[in-house]
Amino acid sequence: MRTATTRRQTAETEVEITVDLDGTGKHRLHTGVGFLDHMLAHLAVHGLFDLVVEARGDLEVDPHHTVEDVALTLGKALDQALGDRTGITRMGSAYVPMDEALAFVAVDLSGRPYAVNDMCWDAPTVGGLPVTLIPHFFESLAIAARANIHARVLYGKDDHHRAEALFKALGRALDVATSLDPRRAGAVPSTKGTL
C-alpha cells in the first residue's frame, strides 16, 4: 500500500493529510478555504489519489499559513507514500484545457526540490484566495515532496479557469510520475541508483 498520513502543527495551523497513491480520486477536504478545497478536489480526482485533508488555521489573519502548510503537509505525505521511489515512472507531464484556458505542468520526482512557475492573473484574488498563494502552493509542495515541478498557464481569460487547469494538470502529471512501471522490476529510475 502506497499510503501515508502526515501531520503538521504550528502556532498558526494544524494540518493532517492522508494520501493513497493508488486510489480512485475519493476525497474529503476541510481546510476552511473553499477555493483551496475546490483545487485539491481537482488534484485528487484527476490524479486518482484518495485524499483526506483536515486543516485548521489562523484564517482570521489570512489564508497564507493554511495554504502553505497544507502544501507542505501534502508534499510530505506524497514523499512518504513514495518510499524509496523504487519502480516509479518518475516523470510526468500534462496539458489541460479548461474552457478558454490552457495550463501545463511537468513533474520529476527526482528527490531534488525545485519549482518554476509561469502564471498570470487578472485579479488579486480568485474565489477569495490571493492569487500569490497559487505559485506559493506549488513551491511549497515541490520542496516537501522533493519534486521538480514546472507549472505554466499558457493562456486564458478567466482566473478561475486558469487555476482549475493548473491543478488538474498537476494531478494528471503526478498520476503519471507516481505510477509504477512494471518494466523497472523494482529498480530505482535513476542512473545514480538512488533518488
Q: Could you characterize the architecture of this molecule?
A:
By secondary structure, the protein is α+β, with helices and mostly antiparallel strands. It has one domain: Imidazole glycerol phosphate dehydratase, domain 1 (Ribosomal Protein S5, domain 2, 2-Layer Sandwich). 34% of the residues lie in helices and 31% in strands. The chain has a four-stranded mixed sheet, covered by helices on one side. It has a four-stranded mixed sheet with strand order 5-6-10-7. The protein has a two-stranded antiparallel sheet with strand order 8-9. Strand 8 and strand 9 form a beta hairpin. The protein starts with a strand and ends in a 17-residue tail after the last helix.
